[in-house]
Amino acid sequence: MKGYEGHSGKKGAKRWLAGLLAAVMASAGGLSAWAGQAPAVIIDTEAGETQEQATSEEVPAWAAAETAAPAEASALEVGGKSAILIELSSGRVLFEKNPHEKLPIASVTKVMTLLLIMEAIDQGTLAYDEPVTCSAHAASLGGSQIWLEEGEVMTVHDLLKAIAVVSANDACAMMAERISGSEEGFVARMNERAAELGMADTLFTDCCGLDEAAYSSAYDVALMSRELMKHPKITEYTTIWMDTLRNGESQLVNTNKLVRHYSGATGLKTGTTSQAGHCLSATAERDGMGLCAVILGCSTTDERFGGARKMLDYGFANYAVYTPSVDEAALTPVRVLRGAEETVAPEMDPLTPLLIKKGQEAAITPSFELAADLEAPVYERQVIGKLTLTLDGSTLAEYEVYASKAVARLGIKQAFARLLAALIA
Questions:
Q1: Of residues 97, 110, 161, 257, which has the active-site annotation?
Q2: Can you identify the CATH homologous superfamily of domain 9-321?
Q3: Positions of the chain with pLDDT lower than 50, given as ranges
Q4: Is residue 294 within 8 Å of residue 222, measured between CB atoms?
């Protein structure tokens, strides 16, 4: 078995033992063939599963069950202390159960850590290929980890993978220190960002969820999960089932079984401690519609995955994203009175998709209101009308119509020239 050459100390010994355990289990037939070839298999140790359970080929009962989704949210029954289902593009709540109850969320905390990492990358202050060096503090963290040693260097890309797949606390601390200088500074930013997102039920006390003095709610977890999913590249990490680090020496196995067993799953993050119970923020996308199901305080891992599946099934069975279209023939030029130009063309921004109940598309009625004429001067992007969509007599959405350009007021010379041209004609 290939060892961890170049690594020393207590964590080096732990890695060697982890590799030995993996090899023993593999020889016993408990791991997949790929896992058996790796000297160390790393999973989220806080999830309460063994390596054999994490890599099992067996389809869990919650994934195999064939249960029709109810037509109404009131008939939806899920476990846990708190739960919520939202549609990602609109943020609309489709189902909720004690959504604002303040609870420990364990490693689901890392949704905020991932969000701040992705925002730093988008802002250009961090790069995927940037090397980061492990500090003594990061190396000292317990719980789920990738056994980083002080001085070990790993890229942001690999650290993101470690956080998203195996919930590595040491990787979280490395990124926290890189972005904010210290974990304390990063936690302060986590709380600031939470306030900016309207997360009124939340207090973060560390970057990874080890400290159970922290708390949040299903509603707040949904808010930060929705914000994280605005960064599409994160799904390249959160949808990984198995991958490796350290040139193949460390194999990672995702504890989020939805990634493997739920069609359209895009992530997002599990969390488990004795106090928090089994928690999950689960995201999925089908037919252009994204959903986020959050469930907290479950007594078993099957209860959290089963509850998340029920919520997602309900959302996909009953809702759809409808993208309105514009009748271009209705966007006729509008006359400009006393303008340097006689008309101005109307224009509209791309229409925002709408969340509707399935089957309602045919009942949506559009109506245009466009100004008969405009008094110069007309300003670019001046509102000159609107498109209203109604459903069963109620307004579903309104979209503004704008002037495509500015039209100055007609000057005396221009008015005389126009009059003269009219007389000659």
A1: 110
A2: DD-peptidase/beta-lactamase superfamily (3.40.710.10)
A3: 1-39
A4: yes
